[in-house]
Design a protein that fits this description.
By secondary structure, the chain is of the alpha+beta class. The protein is 34% helix and 21% strand.
C-alpha cells in the first residue's frame, strides 16, 4: 500500500470526502516528489497533484497514484481545487492546517466552497510510523552524516572558528553525497556550549566543552546527532556532568518501547539528572520524532501527551546546561519496536578529549 492509499483509508475518520495535502513535507510523504509548490487532493477514489509549469514535467515522471494537473499562470490553485471538489461532489475537505499560512487559508476560505476541516493529525499519525524501507533510507542519511563528522574531527583546534567548522561540515557532507543539511549545524564551544541551540560565531574554538549538533538530508530523510567533546583536559565536575548525561540517555533509551508514554520515557532520563542535582539545568525534552522533517509532531517530553507507536523514529538527547559556564548534550536516533528500540546511531559516546 502506497502513502496515497494510506491517506485515502484514513479520510473517513475525519468525516471528509477528500484530503488536501499542501505542506512540502506532507506532499513529499504522500507522493515521494519534492517541490516548493503544489497541492495533492486525495478523494475516496481518485487523487490529483496540482502544480505549475516549473514542476509539471518532473511531477509526471515521478508521481504514481495521482493524476498530475497543470495550474496555468492564468488561474489560481484555489480556483482549480474548488472546481475539482465541485466536479466530484465533495462538500467537506480535510487539510493540513499546521502547514498552511494564514494568508493561504483566507484565500481558500473565500474561494473553496467546500467546508474546510482541520485534519493535520491524519498526516501526523501516518508519518509517525516509518516502514523498514523508510528506516533504511534514514540509516543511509545517518551514516553519511557520521562519516562527515569523523572527517571533521581532526580539523578541530583552537586555531579555527566555530563558523569555519560548521561550514566545513556542510561542505564535506555535500561532497559525500548529502542533498542538504537537515538543520543549521551547531558548533559552539566554551561558555557558549551552555546554549542548547547556540549559533556558531566568528570566534575561535575555546577550551572546555564543544557541542556539535549535526544532520543531513538525503532523499528527503533527515539525520540528527549531537556529540559533546572537550578541548583540553576536563575537570572532575565536567567529567561527572558528562557521565550523568550519558547515564540519563541510557536510562531513557531503556524505557523506549511501543506503547510507552512519551512523558514516562522523559521521566526515566530526567530523574537521573534531577538526582544528580541538575534538574533545573535540563530545560528541554528527552526527544522528538525525526523523519522527513528533523522535528516532527511526536514529542518525548514532560508535557507530551503522545504514546510511542511501533515504527516511530525518535531522538534521544538529554542535556545539562550551566549558564555562562558550559553544557553537555548527547543525542542518538532510535527506531521504536514492540520489544524496545534499535539505536541507528553508530558513533562512540565516551568523552572525546582534543
Amino acid at each position: 500500500m502506497n502513502n496515497i492509499e494510506k491517506i485515502r483509508q484514513a479520510i473517513p475518520e475525519y468525516e471528509c470526502g477528500a484530503m488536501l495535502v499542501s505542506g512540502a513535507a506532507n506532499r513529499l510523504y504522500a507522493t515521494g516528489f519534492a517541490s516548493s509548490a503544489g497541492a495533492l487532493l486525495v478523494s475516496g477514489h481518485d487523487a490529483w497533484f496540482l502544480v505549475d509549469s516549473r514542476y509539471v514535467e518532473a511531477a509526471n515522471a515521478a508521481i504514481s497514484g495521482a493524476q498530475v494537473l497543470l495550474v496555468t499562470k492564468d488561474e489560481k490553485l484555489s480556483e482549480r481545487l474548488n472546481a475539482l471538489l465541485k466536479d466530484n461532489g465533495i462538500s467537506k475537505v480535510g487539510f493540513d492546517e499546521g502547514a498552511v499560512t494564514h494568508a493561504a487559508y483566507l484565500e481558500w476560505a473565500e474561494t473553496i466552497e467546500a467546508e474546510l476541516i482541520p485534519a493535520q493529525n491524519l498526516l501526523n499519525d501516518l508519518r509517525a510510523v516509518k516502514s523498514r524501507g523508510d528506516l533504511e533510507k534514514m540509516i543511509k542519511a545517518q551514516r553519511l552524516s557520521e562519516k562527515t563528522f569523523m572527517e571533521v574531527l581532526p580539523l578541530i583546534s583552537t586555531d579555527v572558528t566555530e563558523k569555519q567548522l560548521a561550514a566545513e561540515f556542510l561542505y564535506r557532507a555535500l561532497k559525500n553525497g548529502a542533498d542538504d543539511k537537515a538543520f543549521d549545524t551547531i558548533f559552539v564551544s566554551g561558555a557558549k556550549s551552555s546554549m542548547p541551540h547556540g549559533v556558531p560565531g566568528d570566534i575561535k574554538i575555546g577550551a572546555g566543552f564543544l557541542t556539535i549538533d549535526f544532520g543531513v538530508r538525503l532523499d528527503g530523510w533527515c539525520s540528527d546527532t549531537t556529540r559533546t567533546l572537550c578541548v583540553g583536559k576536563p575537570d572532575e565536575e565536567m567529567v561527572n556532568i558528562y557521565n550523568t548525561v550519558l547515564k540519563a540517555q541510557e536510562a531513557g533509551i531503556k524505557a523506549v518501547r511501543a506503547g510507552a508514554a512519551g512523558r514516562d520515557v522523559d521521566a526515566a532520563a530526567r530523574s537521573l539528572i534531577e538526582d544528580a542535582g541538575y534538574g533545573e539545568c535540563f530545560g528541554h525534552g528527552f526527544g522528538h520524532a525525526v523523519g522527513l522533517e528533523v522535528h516532527e509532531s511526536l514529542r518525548v517530553s514532560q508535557l507530551s501527551e503522545d504514546t510511542l507507536p511501533a515504527g516511530a523514529v525518535i531522538s534521544a538527547e538529554p542535556g545539562i546546561y550551566l549558564p555562562g559556564r558550559y553544557g553537555v548534550r548527547i543525542e542518538d536516533v532510535l527506531y521504536v519496536t514492540e520489544e524496545g528500540c534499535e539505536n541507528i546511531t553508530d558513533l562512540p559516546k565516551e568523552l572525546i578529549v582534543i
